Amino acid sequence: MVVAGIDVGSKMAKVVIMDGDRNILSYVMARTGTDHGKTSEEVLNEALEKAGLKREDLEKIVATGFGKISVPFADDEVTQVIAAGKGAYFVRPSARTVIEVGAEESRAISLDENGNVKDFALADKCAAGAGSFVDAMIRYLEVTPEEFGQLALKATRAIPMNAQCVVFAESEVVSLLHSNVPKAEISRAIHDAIADRVIAIARRLDIRDDVLLIGGLANDIGFIESMKRELGKDVYVPEDYPPELVPAIGAALSAVQGVR
Amino acid sequence: MGVKVRPFECWDDFKKYRMEYYRNYLEAKENGSIRWAGSAWAFDPVPAGLGEDVYPLTGEPYGATAAFFRDFSMRALETIERKGAARDLCGYMRNYWGSVAMDKYLLADGAEIEPFPKPDFNFTIHICCTHAKWYHYAAELEGGVPTYAVDISVGPGYLLNDKKIEYVVRQLEDAIQWMEKVTGREYDDELLIRAVENEARSMTLWSKICKLNQNTPAPMEEKSMFSFYVMTLLRRSDEKIVKLYEKLYKEVESRVKRGIGALTQEQFRFVTDNPPPWPFLKVYRYLEENYGAVSVGSIYTFGLGAAWLGMDEKGENWIWEPAPTPEEAGYEIHDRRSALWWTAMFNLKYRASWQHEYSHWIRKQETYQMVKDWKADAIIMHLNRGCELWNMSTLEVRDYLVRNGVSVATYEGNMADPREFDEARTFNVIDSFMQSLGIEKLT
Fold this sequence. Notes:
The complex is a heterodimer of chains A (260) and B (443).
Chain A: E1 2-8, E2 12-19, E3 24-31, H1 36-51, E4 58-64, E5 76-77, H2 80-91, E6 97-101, E7 106-111, E8 117-122, H3 131-141, H4 145-153, H5 166-178, H6 183-202, E9 211-214, H7 221-231, E10 235-236, H8 246-259
Parallel strand pairs in A: 1-4, 4-5, 6-9, 9-10
Antiparallel strand pairs in A: 1-2, 2-3, 6-7, 7-8
Chain B: E1 4-5, H1 11-27, E2 34-38, H2 45-48, E3 54-58, H3 59-68, H4 70-82, H5 91-102, E4 105-106, E5 112-113, E6 121-126, H6 131-141, E7 147-151, H7 162-183, H8 189-212, H9 222-229, H10 231-235, H11 239-258, E8 260-261, E9 268-272, H12 282-291, E10 293-298, H13 299-303, E11 308-311, E12 318-322, H14 326-329, H15 336-350, H16 352-355, H17 360-373, E13 378-384, H18 388-391, H19 394-403, E14 407-413, H20 423-436
Parallel strand pairs in B: 1-8, 2-3, 2-6, 6-7, 9-10, 9-13, 13-14
Antiparallel strand pairs in B: 4-5, 11-12
Family (chain B): Belongs to the FldB/FldC dehydratase alpha/beta subunit family.
InterPro entries (chain B): Benzoyl-CoA_Rdtase_bzd_osu, FldB/FldC_alpha/beta
Organism (chain B): Geoglobus acetivorans
């Protein structure tokens, strides 16, 4: 039995091909672009090719992500919370709190010892605690995403960012740059601010060890350090797969369960 | 086999009353009658002593009706924001002010009338940061309307004593003298007594109707309850409201006996807490149609207009049992003072929605006990940006419920500002919640 899980996020589309024994046969990640249906078709075909399979080999396709309704060939859908929870338990069974920071949304999930979602909290209506915010700040600082994370580690002091909104935060960053504040300190301020907002969401839940960080921002070392500092706990990121792939893994697991 | 469902026989009677209510207020001056405006929590029986032709307009239900008609609401909100009102103020209040500022009055069917009918006086209460200021500013917008606000912040009902009741009674006595002065009318104590008795009867009847929803299948879903409960916030001291509730009580009782439910398939029961997002009641429809999920009530629909025993004497447990009427309590109302004493005591002690404003502990017990008594599988909480008072302690309540084994979902919105609701995200929250509980979509 072979299935596919596909996660169409606002920035990236991710697909995972999995067999009935829950082995990941291949995965692909690509920019979502403007035509979600076309992109999802392309990433699926690429993942099948990598696994040496054909479309007719797939028994079930389950979609998740904000663009899940734009996947015309999906047999079923699963919500982002459930997909992220299942995927998180797969990559780190000891995780009890999962924090996902995607391009436009962030969420926190509590898992029980069997990997079931016990509770969850979502950010609403605001991108200030999500990856798009970071993208905007990176543009202002004129650095690469990798440099942006590394810069924060070089900061010698913490300076607060007061703005609660991306629009105002951009203007605050510009002011700091004009005041000749080193980019390292601005980078740390931005990371701390995002960590603050994300942790505020997670605090609606009972934050328990261990905390697994997933989503695109989990690739950012500066953000991981800010999260550790603000939470006062260790924070883990998936070791064997990219952190943004986790919900697609969860969608594939849903497909396996559905077929069984 | 599915559950039998049937529309409410008294539905049209309730609808007719609501239509007449807004029209009566509009046309009052043509007949030399009196109209007053104020909070739905104001002491409604008190102005009733001015005559049988006294018509109120209560602000919160008006603000909710405006919110339901989204196009009107958007214009009202934008109008008042151009005058400087901040977006984080009470959503009902902003719709009301916007309506006054546009000089357009809305009837219950959405018809817009010009100009906005100016009240003879405003009569309100002061429990939250909004109510008294609401009418101070409304009076200014209307070019000057005499305004009287009663301070009722004396603490929760289980700690009530004679001194606290007396504090409110004296304000009501002063209010009567003030009303006589601003209207030029002589006050009739017999009308007050009747109104006070009617208030207690309509509020306890609504409690008894709410209790019937503890049955399975639930005879009422909350969308229908929104149309029923609001009568206690329009003019609960009116004998016609008592009659409407008597009729409804019999009908709901009969539905329970005959197994008539609110949904053809009830596979999930939940309660809510805050005012709903009035422009997006489709949240309830979505839950019903996709999951066979019925909302059997809320602190809002049960707490605003009904009278409950509330916290026990020790302040430890909440009791969802109807409060006594004067007759049941053996209390004789024979003059102005005894009438005012009863209405002050009755509202301060038994109005559920006033109790939890003093303590998150009360709100926790109230909510937890509701989940248990109405046999709810979960609570879906509206993080409502439109009301500071109702949103106070919501997240503490959420934590308490989760720790005590209650499944909780939250979504953000605004009871009366359509710009602050994200439909897709809310449905996503609902789907995630249901999937996490293992509730399948209906096929």
